[in-house]
Amino acid sequence: MNSLPINILFILIVIGTIIWFYMATKSKSFLLLIITMTIFQSVLGISGIYQNTEIMPPRILLFGIFPALVFILVSFLTAKGRDFIDKIDLKTLTYFHSIRIPVEIVLLLLFYQGVVSVYMTFEGTNFDLFSGITAPIVAYLTYRTSKENKKLLLWWNIICLLLLLNVVITAVFALPTPFQKLAFDQPNIAILYFPFNLLPTIIVPLVLFGHLVAFRQLCRTKL
Prior knowledge:
It contains 9 helices and no strands. It is mainly α. It has one domain.
């Protein structure tokens, strides 16, 4: 993973993702937590711990993705977590999904570098670019008047969550692990290295969390 320009670009995307999500939460405690998690995952990525893919379960799932899912689960199951969720600004959070545009560009560049599968790009079966492109449009249409179009926002979140899950499932099956099912000629090795390990461990969990936050807020109010 010696392509310095792509590395720098992706690090900037990670920083932008964190800042943008913070703008939606306005929570310094959450910002500190995300920064701490990012530093921790960066250390793991640099150490090479994720590159041993013969161990089951894969370390990136055990030490990278699982902790993020636990955090999301705790946030929804605790009163303090739900209070935090309900205070997140949904308009800013909708615009936040535009970050998926530069992420898709980086994935395409990594495909050309031979370190991710074509299935992970919009040239393959990754249609997540739709989410990034339509995010500002949906945000504008939803909040352009005092009467918010929450049905539009709800359906958009449903569609974009399904697109995200499609990418995640594809990514898992394209990893060079014992349960690999796809992309044997060009598996997803990039996400096993820093800084790209921050995609499944930081960016994707924040995007997933964003959709789940939207569902809770929208379903708690009259559509």
